[in-house]
Amino acid sequence: MIxxxxxxxxxxxxxxxxxxxxxxxIISVAVYSEADRRAMHVxxxxxxYFIGPSPSSESYLNTDKIIHAAKKSGADAxxxxxxxxxxxxxxxxxxxxxxxxFIGPSPEAIRSMGDKITSRRLMTEAGIPVVPGTEKINSxxxxxxxxxxxxxxxxxxxxxxxxxxxxxxxxxEKDIVGAVRSARSEAREAFGDDSxxxxxxxxxxxxxxxxxxxxxxxxxxxxxxRECSVQRRHQKIVEETPxxxxxxxxxxxxxxxxxxxxxxxxxxxxxxxxxxxxxxxxYYFLEMNTRLQVxxxxxxRVVGVDLVKQQIRIANGETLDIRQDELxxxxxxxxxxxxxxxxxxxxxxSPGVIRHITEPLGLGxxxxxxxxxxxxxxLFYDPMMSKLIVWAGTRKEAIARLRRALYSYKITGVKTxxxxxxxxxxxxxxxxxxxxxxxxxxxxxxLLFPEKHDEKIEDVAIIAAFIDYATKIKKREDKIFSxxxxxxxxxxxxxxxxxxx
Length: 501
Ligand code: ADP
Description:
Bound molecules: adenosine-5'-diphosphate
CATH class of the largest domain: Alpha Beta
Number of strands: 22
Shape: globular
Oligomer: single chain
CATH architecture of the largest domain: 2-Layer Sandwich
CATH superfamily of the largest domain: ATP-grasp fold, B domain
CATH topology of the largest domain: D-amino Acid Aminotransferase, Chain A, domain 1
Helix content: 25-40%
Radius of gyration: 23 Å
Number of domains: 5
Strand order of the largest sheet: 13-12-9-10-11-14-19-18
Number of helices: 19
Distance between the termini: 50 Å
Largest sheet: 8 strands, antiparallel
Mean pLDDT: 92
């Protein structure tokens, strides 16, 4: 039985994993770099071990140091979180060799799914629809031939790809050679592997993924879908479940394909099968992530399952205690990722000291974060500060709740994308559930320049209600609303849009 878990990660996910450990009576061990001496995960853990300089290559990605800390602390298992070593088959193998339980799937499963060309082949053999595309492309000449055969637009993709790296959209045949060259060099730099392949570009795409859980005894279930189409540069910003475009029939089909995908690699652990879905709900396997996803809390909320606890139970060799036919999606959950960044400066990271933070609270709100007042966000890591997750009985209520929560979320000291997220929640395409991965590009003006759009409110009753509301607010919160003694009607504008729903 696992009694002590070393969490080989930092930030919100390290804290989140430790919370489940504590509930299970398991001792948690943190590791930390120079930049993370004052980090929340170090304070939260039962024990903490220093593992070296701030750059992750010298600390969180250094296998020897992590294994050494595990041995020194007497941890019997390692939870890798997401990112860092979570999808590193060699690390999972090393844990096994050292007699430490790796809380995740087998090294073989990680390896098969980590290489996109291999996983596409395996999925095709298992009868799962994959995006039409090629095997490995060795030459620019072949790339051109294949792009012609498939028909532009196509995607040039790195086999080792992740985080949107090594991926190029090619709209016109003449651009294929340049795209192959640049995707290759980016992939070489990021993954040390420049293998690429080409796949058909799916127009008006939705990114819809299925959460799966498999135990070591061959039982595999899915925990329904997550809609992850609100993206910027192929990176998710907002996720929700259920997907507003899903039908029960397609959900059941995709769910069984997700289970089949996991079965094809004897999957044991928590994983995510990603699909790309077109306007007509034709779906194609994209990839499988063999770890916990950033957006896992929305699934936890809607199905009522603690995925980290399940991961630990599975790693313990226990049998899944959830049956597929017992699961149902209850209500609606939305997550948004809060970043220390400046949307008005092309989303440039904005690290710095948190001067003040008021976290959102209340019914149906979950906030998975790690920053606190006086904490300095280091330059070295991802600028995501927290995840705000809401749940409500219906999608409409969940949007209203997320708006309320975002509105009460105050951080000073660093720039954040909170206002940008509020605008997403106000954007008609999102509110109506009519969006795909082009959402951010299509609505960028609305999202970044609220002043231009707020004057378009036409509903007289809403304007009247707003004036009444704003007048009361103005009296009550004069200090907040006034700058140099003058009314700040831009702030009131926030309230106009807030009042609209
Ligand atoms: P990564 O592993 O780098 O995250 P993915 O293969 O998961 O890359 O793709 C990331 C995103 O890129 C998807 O969510 C989708 O928005 C877009 N994308 C990827 N492949 C295609 C495709 N064939 N057609 C259309 N969009 C795609």
